[in-house]
Amino acid sequence: MTQKKYSFFALLFLLVTIISCEKNEIKQIAAQPIDKNAIIDSTITAFEKKLLEQQIDSVFKKYNFNGSVAVFKDSTKLYQKENGFSDFKTKTKIDDHTLFAIGSISKQFTAVMVLLEMEKGKLKTDDKVSKYLTEFQTKEYENITIHQLLNHTSGLNLFGGKLMFKSGSNFFYSNDGFNALGKIIEKVSGRSYDENVLDLFKKAGMNSSSTGNVFKGTDFASAYLGNTKNAELIQNMPKRLGGKEIGIPAGGILSTIQDLNTWNNALYGGKILNQETLQKFMAKSSERQHQIFGKMGYGYGIMLNIGKPNAYFHSGYIKGSPSLNIYYPETKTSVIILSNIADEEKGKSSIFRPHIEIKKITDGIENTVIDLRTEMMTPNEELISHRKD
């Protein structure tokens, strides 16, 4: 048990001790029905908020983090903080309406749209991609399936190149694979990717999200390389997200803190996919060794913790825009980290240090909260004896 976990239990013990010593409150409790779950939830939430504030604030301070971080339990905000600028030239401050380029977090939207087409009977995940796209009708690519593109086991790296391995036998992360999935969506739906994803945003209740192709607003966080004292603007953003180098289905979506929380709640709450399809989306169908986050499982456009706590997440990186979206299903908690500046000279491990530290914090708190709730559900013998008196 970590020192942080001990301190959490110590604070709770202190609270319970104070309550148990207040005779008048005990008499009042004894005279009224007790909603034990509500008391437990409110107590845990109060301490969770305090821990998140102390620990994530320290990450902001340590790295002078330029961006936005929020933690929500379902629709309840546990923590949110913005720091720095969305535009360094005009000194426009980041706020909760700021849209960020979310990079490969976009892949889960593409995966979900493929599965929605599956629910309509327009495709199957074990179909060969060559059934839909003529460019896959070659000896090299003819056996690649939609399933293998969704979980990066196709062997594809850059389209047109030789496969990295026999399809289905290993893991290799491919943006071109997800851009091919975008083309399949367009083929079977008869509509553009942008039209499809905007409809998905509407279905999920995401009122601010867009793509690099169609965005026309003013709340976009410009992307920068370097540091806050010497920031170099990335040109042609967000339009460049629709180019061949990136591609909208692989990494071209723009979103906000609130919209990503709304998405997590809608997706994992069963409001987008039916339960059988959602399980297919979340199921670990491959494994990868991530250069930053270590060993993990991989579903369809989503990463999975190996071990506790149970978590679905994905990082994203477009030049100058490191991001991370995490969902803890047991407590229905979302952790969203968005930024718009990165010092590439220090390497990606350095760029993602704030994200790594925050994930370690929230992983630890998630484990503690689950254990704590179990502990608190055990009957309090002292309180029971008072009620009998």
Strand-and-helix sequence, N→C? HHHEEEEEHHHHEEEHEHHEEEEEEEHHH
Structural class: alpha+beta
Which residues sit in consecutive blocks of at least 5 with pLDDT less than 50?
17-27, 381-389
Mean pLDDT reading: 90
Taking the alpha carbons of the first and last residues, their distance comes to: 37 Å
Biggest sheet statistics: 8 strands, antiparallel
Strand content: 15-25%
Number of helices: 13
Shape: globular
Using only C-alpha atoms, the radius of gyration works out to: 23 Å
Overall strand count: 16
Strand order of the largest sheet: 2-1-15-14-13-12-11-10
Helix content: 40-55%
Please explain how this structure is put together.
There is one protein chain. By secondary structure, the protein is of the alpha+beta class. 41% of the residues lie in helices and 18% in strands. The chain has 13 helices and 16 strands. It has helices at 3-21, 23-31, 36-63, 107-119, 146-150, 175-189, 193-204, 248-251, 257-268, 275-282, 348-351, 353-376, 381-388; strands at residues 67-73, 76-83, 85-87, 92-93, 100-101, 210-211, 224-227, 230-233, 253-255, 286-290, 294-298, 303-304, 312-318, 321-328, 333-339, 341-342. The protein has an eight-stranded antiparallel β-sheet with strand order 2-1-15-14-13-12-11-10, sandwiched between helices. A three-stranded antiparallel β-sheet has the order 5-9-6. It has a three-stranded mixed β-sheet with strand order 8-7-16, with no helix packed on it. Strand 3 (85-87) and strand 4 (92-93) form a beta hairpin. Helix 2 crosses helix 13. The longest helix is centred in the first third of the chain and has 28 residues, at 36-63. The radius of gyration is 23 Å and the shape is globular. The two termini are 37 Å apart. The model is unreliable at 17-27 and 381-389 (pLDDT under 50).
